[in-house]
Amino acid sequence: MTKLTVSRPVDFNDYWAAVSEELASTPASPEIEAIPIRKTDFATLYGVRLSSIGPYRLYGYLSIPKGRGPFPALYWTPKYGSVLEVIPQGTENDVRSRFVTFSLAGRGQRNSDQPFAAMFPGLLTVNIDSKDSYVFRGIVADSIRGLEFVSTVPEVDSSPIVVIGNDVALQAVALVGKASHVVSAPALFFETLASATRTESYPLEEINDYLRLHPSRNEQVAQTLSYFDLRSFAPLVNANALFMAGPAGSSLGPEALGDLASSIPGGADIYASQQSSYKDGLHQEQWIASKLGFDGPIVPAHWR
Q1: Which residues, in sequence order, are bridge partners of residue 182?
Q2: Rounded to whole angstroms, how far apart are CA atoms 188 and 284?
Q3: Rounded mean pLDDT, 138-154
Q4: CA–CA separation, 199 vs 84, rounded Å?
Q5: Is 152 helix (H, G, I), strand (E, B) or coil?
Q6: Are 168 and 123 in contact (CB under 8 A)?
Q7: What is the rounded CA–CA span in Å between residue 148 and residue 28?
Q8: Residue-wise pLDDT tens digits, 41-59
Q9: DSSP string spanning 29-88?
Q10: Inter-residue contact 265 to 236 (CB < 8 Å)
Q11: C or N: which end of the chain has fewer Cβ atoms within 10 Å?
Q12: Rounded to an integer, what distance in angstroms lies between the CA atom of residue 149 and that of residue 18?
């Protein structure tokens, strides 16, 4: 395991312990309702409402296969975008016959947008000058709440739970420890300030926009982001991990993420994006299938 050099706040553990305590004192109060129009021959879909810190009411989609369980689970943490899908676009619907699936909208995303509706771009910098009110403090908590929920679904075999998403997926797995596997595509919280200076692409360009508007807040922004840097979470991950990196040579490419991956106990696999949803998606599905002992992945017909 590589020991990364990172400016980890001395109260990093206390900061996140406070979030965990706030979650523990907030009943999840799940409300589950069948969605008949999304029912198939092989799975039943439910809408789920949960409470996270705040309290804040969240919405997610839970799909349960028909037949005898328990089943392995796929959990998609809140993505960086407004729309919540049952399963991500491009994913073969038949995965719902093999897995319990759960996708969650974090605060601000559609269906979880009362009282707060997020702007894209813009979400990345909401209250970023305060570590205690930064919007992602709540979104990470939302992601943990989702993982806690899916691990308690009676039809879930708790030993294989795969968490899939961006930086938030890795953060949730590090903090809650209920997942067996995690697939993370870092985009927001790996050396954020330094990475932002090397790009004009969103979402990191949101950081540049914010600091152009508020140049005197650089220090506060840096302090807040230090509590979210993936380098501080990686040593806490106790799951098989796959990093979906950017293309080779990019700021989030496999070379940049190498030390991050090796700082995870047991190591992690890194995949360099081929800038093809087909090739990248196929690799991810093959990795999950192989790790869970299936003969092959369930993928769209045009990927076979």
Answers
A1: 163, 241
A2: 20
A3: 97
A4: 27
A5: helix
A6: no
A7: 9
A8: 999 999 999 999 999 999 9
A9: --EEEE-GGG--SSEEEEEEEEEETTTEEEEEEEEEESSS--EEEEEE---SSS---SS-
A10: no
A11: C
A12: 20
**pLDDT tens digits for 60-88?**
999 999 999 899 999 999 999 999 999 99
What is the C-alpha to C-alpha distance for residues 269 and 184, in angstroms, rounded to an integer?
A: 11
What is the b/e burial string over 124-163, where b = at least 16 CB atoms within 10 angstroms of the residue's CB? bbbebbebeebbbbbbbbbbbbbbbbbbebeebeeebbbb
pLDDT digits (tens, 9 = 90+) for 219-271: 999 999 999 999 999 999 999 999 999 999 998 999 999 999 999 998 899 99
The structure tokens 């300030």 sit at 193
User: Is there a contact between 260 and 231 (Cβ–Cβ < 8 Å)?
Assistant: yes
2-11, 24-33, 69-78, 244-253, range with the lowest pLDDT: 2-11
Indicate the SS3 state at residue 197.
Answer: helix
Q: Token pair for residue 233? A: 């979470």
Give residue 4's pLDDT band: very low, low, confident or very high (50, 70, 90).
very low
Which amino acid makes up residue 297?
P
Q: Are 290 and 183 in contact (CB under 8 A)?
A: no
Give the chain's count of helices (H) and strands (E): 10, 9
Helix (H, G, I), strand (E, B) or coil at 183: strand
**Length of the chain, please?**
304
Tokens representing 46? 């439910």
**DSSP strand pairing (100-105 vs 181-184):** unpaired
Q: What is the largest CA-CA distance in the chain?
A: 59
pTM higher than 0.90 for the full model?
yes
- Give the closest residue to 44 by CA, choosing from 68, 69, 61: 61
